[in-house]
Amino acid sequence: MADKGAYAEGRPATIKDVAARAEVGIATVSRVFSGGSVSARTRERVRAAAEELDYRPSAVGRSLKTQRTGGIGLIVPDVTDPFYSDLMAGVLDCARSLGEHVVVDAAHGDPEREALIADRMMEQRVDGIVAVPMGGNEAWESVLRAGGNVVFADRESPAGGPAAPAVFTDDRAGVRSLVEYLVGLGHRRIAFLGAAGAGEAVGVREGAFRDTLAQRKVAIREDLMVVARPERDSAYAAAAGLLQGGADVSAVLASGHLLGEAAVLVARELDLRVPADVSIAMVGDVPWAELCDPPLTAVARPGHDVGYRACELLLRDRARRGRGGPVLVPTELLIRGSCGPPRGSRGR
Amino acid sequence: MADKGAYAEGRPATIKDVAARAEVGIATVSRVFSGGSVSARTRERVRAAAEELDYRPSAVGRSLKTQRTGGIGLIVPDVTDPFYSDLMAGVLDCARSLGEHVVVDAAHGDPEREALIADRMMEQRVDGIVAVPMGGNEAWESVLRAGGNVVFADRESPAGGPAAPAVFTDDRAGVRSLVEYLVGLGHRRIAFLGAAGAGEAVGVREGAFRDTLAQRKVAIREDLMVVARPERDSAYAAAAGLLQGGADVSAVLASGHLLGEAAVLVARELDLRVPADVSIAMVGDVPWAELCDPPLTAVARPGHDVGYRACELLLRDRARRGRGGPVLVPTELLIRGSCGPPRGSRGR
DNA sequence: CTGAAAGCGCTAACAT
DNA sequence: ATGTTAGCGCTTTCAG
């Protein structure tokens, strides 16, 4: 076989191998693959050589030269959570449309781990990071100082730090609409089932809950405000404590899908009929909400949109960032069958 | 301010900037960050300089030199599907423990898109790829030829091609145990609700279904073998067709969680009691299966394990790859409340 | 239109 | 222990 270049199988082909095989300079090969002007004849020769060698231009070589990797980082607490899955899908969709790839990692609610991941992504020289931050901003300040551009998703930028842009759902409005719906149904003894540790996000929901109740002149029952740790067991225990206590609760607003699940399970075990004995509603829609019997009324938080817009903000609107404050994505109240008038009300 | 090196803010600091500021050679800086021998005093000076500059060693520079990126690619059909979410979490866990990062993308069942993604990952020079392949092996052959190492997950290596190692769940055994359970309960008119287009995987399930029935001397009713397209609507229509036709079906085995969902919904709409009027079971466990009323009996397919082991196979056991054939991860039959003896049976 | 050469940030000899 | 230097694969002037 004619030896056009000493390329030997095993290691991926480089631009040099292709150049040698096509008997052109490496600059020409580069032009062929990054769109320079090359004569049709030469271009064909190069393509053929590349094909035979299974050549793929090395993104690392290119990145070193161009100082851009064409990749972004995505940090979520947990990839198996339906909301974050949706968010991830949104980021992926947007990134694809802008020709970037995505490095994903899960921090599992550990600020230290989150910082490590962010650091690593910075070393990777991603063009930007979309993060659902759990930690405070100490870690993120360092990233920001180093010139990293980051957009926070699903949470407001931690106060105090050099604010990064943020995209999140309008949970305040979501909870408000839900509470108003419940109050409108006649409920006065509404329990709030929240989770601790989720940072600011839950504070917002509880705040909106209290505010709306106050606005509607409904007394806030502190004994019906319970907060669980973010684990399944704790959620279950909290729900049990609430519902077992005697039928003083006419409705429960679960501030997350794990809490909602706990409420449904406990109600079923206690043989409480939903919504005849107790109404249940939750923040965060999930696939099983429709499969429940009865289907669960919920405030849908469009994770896909949040992810998409965060990515867009990161990549496309780099210029006008920070302007106009954080991006609020609207939620939607999905009224299904799990809420009704409280027992003993005059009905409708 | 004393001008230790002409570093100017804005662009990320390089090894040179740090070297200048610490007044050492660049090799020394490199040693500090990649574990060479450096005197404690010097090491400290370098650390300090790096800190002030927010220096992070560039992975792209390093990768170019070492020919390893320390990253792997993961290609799934859909990141929002619970099974693939689990699989992803498994890959992430394993990758983390081995110090690699993960580039994720979703192919959405489009072989062309899948090929594009794989190609891009090869350009990225990932150290390997874990893929849930939808396309045939044409695309993958090119990847393999170029020296890429790939492990298939959740599907057998496409026949004919240069086989890559594969890790998947033992669906054959899973379906068999489910069918045997159903037959043991007394069912003779069992419907199979499958989905087309999912490649080999579904074929295996249908095959196991038929084989087990034959083995147990139960006649296979071709009119009860229905196959839907992988969309929600089609699944729903198929389930409706099956259950409406008259109560000739005593149990339905849904070959996937979308199908199971459809079956549950249809049964509810038709006011069929589960399991009194009809038993329902499905392949693939999902969170909502426990929340159903009654909770759904299902064959759990451990996505996390599949992902973890695939990643391990890719990264750790590179040596003994191919030996011993594909890795089978066991499934588990989760008996819950959705299956009972058929109507009109003598009961227990 | 094409080739030669510099250099992106880093590591690994090799020299001191 | 530390500095010098030669590339890794690529893009991009700058000549021709």
Q: Figure out the total of helices of chain A.
A: 12
Can you give the helix content of chain A as a percent range? Answer: 40-55%
Through-space gap between termini of chain A? 89 Å
According to DSSP, the number of beta strands of chain A is: 12
Kindly report the average pLDDT value of chain A. 91
Helix and strand sequence of chain A? HHHHEHEHEHEEHEHEHEHEEHEE
Structural class assignment of chain A: alpha/beta
* Low-pLDDT residue intervals, each spanning 5 or more residues of chain A: none
Q: Shape of chain A from CA axes?
A: elongated
Q: Characterize the biggest β-sheet of chain A.
A: 6 strands, parallel
What percent strand of chain A?
A: 15-25%
Oligomerization: homodimer
Give a verbal description of the structure.
The structure is a homodimer of 348-residue chains. Chain A has 348 residues and is α/β, with parallel strands linked by helices. In chain A, 42% of the residues lie in helices and 15% in strands. Chain A contains twelve helices and twelve strands. In chain A, the strands form two sheets. A six-stranded parallel β-sheet of chain A has the order 2-1-3-4-5-11, sandwiched between helices. In chain A, strands 7-6-8-9-10-12 form a six-stranded mixed β-sheet, with helices on both faces. In chain A, strand 1 (71-76), helix 5 (82-97) and strand 2 form a beta-alpha-beta unit. Chain A is elongated, with a radius of gyration of 27 Å. The interface between A and B is large, with 55 and 55 residues. Strand 2 (101-106) of chain A pairs antiparallel with strand 2 (101-106) of chain B, so a sheet runs across the interface. Chain A binds a DNA duplex (16 and 16 nucleotides) through helix 2 and helix 4.
